[in-house]
Amino acid sequence: MADAETSKRKSDLPVRFASAVVMLAVAGTAFWLGGVWFDLFALLVAVLCVSEFGRLVMLAFEGRGARLIGLLLGGAYIATAAYALVTLPIAVVLGILSVVIATDVGAYFSGRSIGGPKIAPSISPSKTWAGLGGGMLAAGLVSAGFFAWNSGDTSLRTMIFIAFAIGALLAVVAQSGDFFESWLKRRAGVKDSSNLIPGHGGVFDRVDGLLPVSIASIALWAVHPS
């Protein structure tokens, strides 16, 4: 069974790679154009995400009341994240995306190389504490690097360590978003939020960690000293 799964993943690699290139090209173009084009891109992603979230809620819950509450909360959750992305400065959004990507990359490689105890095997069997630690380390380093780049100060002073701590905490937030979607998909009895992106599942699958990090980031931005 494991060999069959491994073979399937290898056969999907060209499709996954091609889809990733297209996604990066579209997102990169939206970033480069900025302004209304980035806002429209964020709106499109949010609409698709809401649609997929709604499908999961309808599959995961039977009661009309539970479904309604799930749809309302999910819509508010995604709308708040989209508002954060179109409101924050583009440089901050780039930093947020970099932290989320660093979290995923750090968690993947440290989890694969170290292994060890699972965090919540009944929800997401592949997530380990070692992976979480690796994701926090990678996100912290990226956050500290962005601070040094934007401030032009690479000295080891207090703000560098604060930036590192913020990145590490945002990695935990990103992983929480991942666990939330995994829990919802498990309840719904599906592997992916949709099959919209060949080899990658749905839009919600790609932004599950970005959503809560965006919300946390706009809260941090609101209280940061001007």
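^ that was protein a. below is b, sequence first then the tokens
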Amino acid sequence: MVEAEEAAAQTTTPRAIRSQEDILEVAVAEFAANGYAGARVDEIAARTRTTKRMLYYYFGSKAGLYLAVLERVYAQIRQVERDIRVDELPADEALRTIAVATYDHHTTHEAFIKLVSIENIHQAQHLRRSETILRENATAITLLEEVIERGVDAGLFRSDVDAVDVHMMISAYACFHVANRHTFAAIFDRDMLAPALQEPHRRLIGDMIVATMTSGR
């Protein structure tokens, strides 16, 4: 039985791929809900179409599975950015589009924000081990650099704010809505993810970023 399972795992059959996808989907929820230390591999295996032995066969260890989870969720936001055809838009509209797309992703992917928060608690010790994350996240800055350069060349944008700062501003606004949702609601009686607030908040992040880059030229 064990030999048959491992033989199947050595191939890229649809069944093996589905098994790994099932594991990652459940693992994202488990690690996001309970953190790295609190997540249980037994629970992940029990909720998927595989065994704990096969889970370790695919990912090596709990740390390996957690790293694969981080790579998965970061890849999703990078794919959102790649899908934006910024080269077809004026620089200010392209910048607004990136900001809004990031906001839309973060406010609809609570697990991503939780996992980022968890990894910050661990001082990014797992994330630093992933060449994939470090390489792919560089594309987020490259994309902004291209847009900002076009805006500066066109006389639209200031030249003293770099792409990392712009990325930080966009991420901070978008992450805050999820990371601070409950404390903010308790203090100010406002749910930042209430449906009625989403369109105004989408406009606001676009306005903030464009206004920052077009002021002080």
